[in-house]
Write a sequence for this structure.
């Protein structure tokens, strides 16, 4: 039996889903997320605005597209249809179960990258002068990157749009290791935290899981589901 060919998503789904994953994104960021043709994605965004699925927002000097409530429902409908058409529900759910136990470790590592407790200040900022502390955090982030390779391979083998999460995470970690500490947690760039949280959102949206219900999934995994 031959290898399963990964399902390729439509440009319409990728354009709408890029807005979902980015939270807020300008036209260029939407196109860049899945390497879409800029003129095509720009036109689709205007169509989606007319349908009431996306809207432009401005916040703290930045602006871009964001999904409306109707847009989130449409995105979830399209993702569910794609998941069924690709016959990928089981492998994507298996990848989600593999991913969940690492999520708490990533959040802890990112917190430790931002904070360096001292006897006088439990929430003292990490000024990155303690090399031993930072090396410990970077080692944990590297271990998580290794785990992400397997998760991403299982996903991208069934749905092509999941490709690249591990490479993007690895590129951010390399920049942090090479003296750019902001690439661990910096928002609105492909930092380790941004890429990881984007994958988390992608899995939840694809499987139709409400973030508020995720504690139940974690509890069931702990019982050996």
């Amino acid at each position: 039996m031959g290898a399963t060919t990964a399902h390729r998503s439509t440009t319409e789904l990728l354009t709408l889903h890029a807005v979902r994953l980015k939270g807020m994104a300008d036209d260029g960021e939407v196109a860049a997320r899945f390497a879409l043709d800029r003129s095509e994605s720009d036109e689709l965004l205007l169509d989606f605005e007319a349908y009431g699925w996306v809207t432009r927002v401005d916040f703290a000097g930045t602006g871009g597209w964001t999904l409306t409530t109707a847009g989130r429902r449409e995105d979830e409908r399209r993702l569910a249809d794609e998941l069924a058409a690709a016959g990928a529900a089981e492998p994507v759910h298996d990848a989600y179960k593999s991913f969940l136990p690492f999520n708490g470790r990533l959040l802890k590592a990112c917190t430790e990258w931002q904070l360096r407790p001292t006897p006088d200040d439990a929430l003292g900022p990490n000024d990155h002068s303690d090399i031993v502390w930072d090396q410990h955090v970077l080692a944990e982030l590297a271990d998580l990157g290794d785990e992400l390779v397997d998760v991403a391979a299982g996903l991208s083998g069934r749905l092509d749009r999941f490709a690249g999460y591990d490479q993007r995470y690895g590129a951010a970690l390399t920049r942090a290791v090479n003296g750019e500490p902001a690439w661990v947690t910096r928002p609105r760039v492909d930092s380790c935290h941004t890429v990881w949280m984007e994958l988390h959102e992608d899995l939840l949206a694809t499987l139709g899981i409400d973030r508020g219900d995720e504690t139940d999934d974690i509890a069931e995994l702990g019982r050996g589901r």
User: Anything to note?
Assistant: The chain is about 65% helix and 5% strand. The radius of gyration is 19 Å.
